[in-house]
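COURSE: Structural Biology Practicum
ASSIGNMENT: Worksheet 4, Part C
STUDENT ID: 0417
INSTRUCTIONS: Below are two proteins. For each, the amino acid sequence is given first, followed by its structure token string. Answer the questions at the end about the second protein only.

PROTEIN I
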Amino acid sequence: MNICLFTSEEIGKPLPWNDGRAQHLIKILHKKQGDSFAAGIVEGQAGKALITKISEKSFIEFSFEPESSGKILYPLNMIIGFPRPIQLKRLLRDIAGLGASAVYLTGTELGEKSYLHSTLVERGAAYQMLLDGTVQAGSTHVPELFIHKNLAECMENLNHAEYAEKSVQPSQEQAVPSLKIALDNINAQCSLKDFIEANISQTGNNNLPYRFKATTAIGSERGWTDKERSFLEKSGFTRCSMGSRILRTESAATVAASIILNYMGVLN
């Protein structure tokens, strides 16, 4: 636990002894009265908490001193075909740890339809995985999670989100290139590396903390159909490869996000 996160309602209240965070502070981190620990408010400020009182088997009292607005999420949206539930857990945790802004889980034509009804999403476990990844990264901001029946529904929602974003962004930020990438190891138009380098060569002279924005689409286990490839192309996506090896959905998502964030200039 690299940061202990609280909701805005919890931050000023004693932490119950049987809360998992309290147990981690006492049993794993061996914190005592007078010790401090990294803390933050979900979707809010990050800072230091000071343990002011420990009532064993009852509660932990602490004060909180904010120090920053928290680590920003990067302008990377990830469209991902529903993977197996066990893969989904790891995928969401890793993507949150890397700092993507949003995850759009979607059904695909070749994907297993039963995954769409995973109880991971219904019971909040998917959000918990995102929260776990956020804690691992020492961050306070959790990526948004969206669920869609198919790629068309997903794209419609994404287009609405992009329209709303443009309406509130300053002109300088709107001028940053926005790349749309669909990973495809069967019928790619170019490599991911070549596509990014061809589209960011003239974008190094702005004052923003990143060189471009990106939306990346990754299919489910059996990839995209020709119909989906055509739809993605009409939606402005370029099909890119990451070499000849076939990766699991979770691996492809993590590798692609890492490559894109590196070119974005946020991993320096």
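PROTEIN II
(use this one for the questions)
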Amino acid sequence: MKEKYLLKLSGIVKDFGDNRVINDVSFSVKSNEFLTILGPSGCGKTTLLRAIGGFEEPTAGKIFLNGEDMAGIPPHKRQVNTVFQKYALFPHLNVFDNVAFGLKLKKVPKDEIRKRVKAMLKLVDLKGFEKRNITKLSGGQQQRVAIARALINHPKILLLDEPLGALDLKLRKDMQIELKQIQQNLGIAFVYVTHDQEEALSMSDTVVVMKDGKIAQMGTPQDIYNEPVNAFVADFIGENNIFDGEMIEDQQVEILGAVLPYNDGVWPKGMPVDAVIRPEDVKVVAPENGYWRGRVESVVFKGVHYEIVVNCGGYQWLIHSTAAPKVDEEIGMTIDLYDLHLMKKMFDGAENRVPAEIETATSVLIDGLSFEIPETDRERGEKVILRIPPSAIDVVGDEESPLTGTLLSVIYKGKYNEMIVDCGGRRWLIQEDRDEQVGIRVGLKIDFSQALTESAGDDSNDPS
């Protein structure tokens, strides 16, 4: 029998002028599902929620609710209600009147309003608060009033936009449990937006991880945590050790000098990969018994485990263990092989292969921009491929270089930050010691003395 979905998004695109904030997003939500849209600031998750609620009209694509196309349907005519981070409660009304507001607009009989408000306040654990002034409530109580007001109209779907963001840590954790219980008790669909990984993993049936307006990965919390599809997802979901690896045989991978068998999937010889090792999966052993050995830099007690940082040949490892080695002690590190997870790199290959044209004996054109290079005997106008290692590129201010772009991702690889920068549609892979904020404009400064030059040929590989 074909699964019936309550909400379906098909190819949603949203542009604000020349800026595309949502790019071909599709997913479905079942009638009693708790789905979380997770991602960093600026990834498009709130815009997507507003499109579902009817506050933004998609540039392209369709949104269906109960099989009905929502194009042109205003928010108040959709069977959807939204809870915002700032709650938007009426300070001049008490708790009862805030919750009853929507029913009064619909001219529901007074006895029915009293009955439904009483039942809803009991559901959100605010029984007896009917006459309480909104300004006298705590943040958690105000949030529950906002939820009660949204639910009392019996929506098919409740949309929640970072509703716990204004709460302190303990209250936020308590409300995570309460929200999940409310959703299960009502049996309706929740679509929840957050940048908090713990919220997404602890409450959701399905998690949609977004990056740059696209879905990076969608699945159960267990799938997202245990089987990330790329380094962005692995880095964003919890703490991880992410290192460069290379398949030296079809089923053997080399990671920081250790050769390990790996037979989960087809990984051809010579393929560069990203290797993910969870901190809790690393076992501390005697130095001679480990796949790797290193020296302990720090040990911090975290309540249920020790957080240990180990320097292994210049690479930093993070380990979570119930046993604590001593600072400066040499240790071995090993893992169960089934805990190793390999991923295809987000960038095609381990270097930048850039089409260029020889301008003069000491300059080259890349995407119409002129750069000085070491003297070459190649002829003017010759088409070439520049093989530029990621370590030969520095990220600088966007006013310091003619080559500028947007920083798309930053992944810590134990020794350096791996960055991807989009310059007019061409993506550059960079290894940098410094850290930068994703989404900013940056300039790229290239050390062309480290570049290798090849003749282009008709079948040149353009990685952009």
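ANSWER KEY EXCERPT:
Q1: The chain has eight helices and 30 strands.
Q2: The two ends are 43 Å apart (CA to CA).
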